[in-house]
Amino acid sequence: MMDDPFEGINEQEMTEPPKKTKKKKKSKSIQKAEKQVLDNIVQSTAPEPKDDTKERAAVIFSIKSYGKSARFKKLWKAEGVKFGDAALNKMSLDALKLKLESLDMLIANRHTSDFIDVLLKNGLSFAENIIDSRTKFKIGGLAEELFDNDNFLDTLERLKLKYSLPSVNIDPGLEIMMIVIQTAMMVHQTNTFRNSLTENLDSLDLDAELKQENTD
């Protein structure tokens, strides 16, 4: 007779599943203490808010300096720019920097369109003088003719609008150097024309004197 493999095993142990052990709930005081520890860790690792008081004050001072400029008062009025303390103090640092940059752009672009026209006209005049004096092509007066041509002026304006030329913000140091060069070219052309005219008048007077002497 074979031995019973289940001999000695309690039937209740075979039928009933093992009892689950219940986890003990943490007391409210422990939960509160753990939360306080986590909050302290988060606060210690979080970056401290940046103190931008000095930088804000410097930017606001620059903005108000623009506003106090007597030369640009009409420009600010025409553009509706406000420089009140209440409005500036409410603005963020990034907004203040953007306002300061926009003020500089307004000044830089005020005469940019005219500046480009004059620069182009002087460049054409310089080129036509060289070509007229050193080649067989007599194109003196080309710049004047072009700037009297409505089709040319319309196309030039389209060109400036397409490439946003009036909104180009040139460095003030570079711009003042370009203005000096441009003005020097204009003065040179004026003086050259005046000297040439004077020489021609002197030559005419001399011819008239020679003719008078010959008749006498």
Q: Provide the gyration radius in Å.
A: 43 Å
Tell me the domain tally: 2
Low-confidence stretches are none
Task: State the shape.
Answer: elongated
User: How many β strands by DSSP?
Assistant: 0
Mean pLDDT: 77
Question: Quick one: biggest sheet?
Answer: none
Helix content: over 70%
Q: Cα distance, first to last residue?
A: 175 Å
Order of helices and strands: HHHHHHHHHH
In terms of structural class, how would the helical and strand content be classed? mainly alpha
So how many helices?
10
Beta fraction: under 5%
Descriptors for this entry?
single chain, 216 residues, mainly alpha, 2 domains, elongated
Task: Give a description of the structure.
With 216 residues, the protein is mostly helical. The protein folds into 2 domains: 53-108, no CATH class; 112-215, no CATH class. Helices cover 71% and strands 0% of the residues. It contains 10 helices and no strands. Helix 3 packs parallel to helix 6 (93-108) and helix 7 packs across helix 10 (172-215). The longest helix is centred in the last third of the chain and has 44 residues, at 172-215. It is elongated and about 140 Å long. It starts with 10 loop residues before the first helix and ends with a helix.
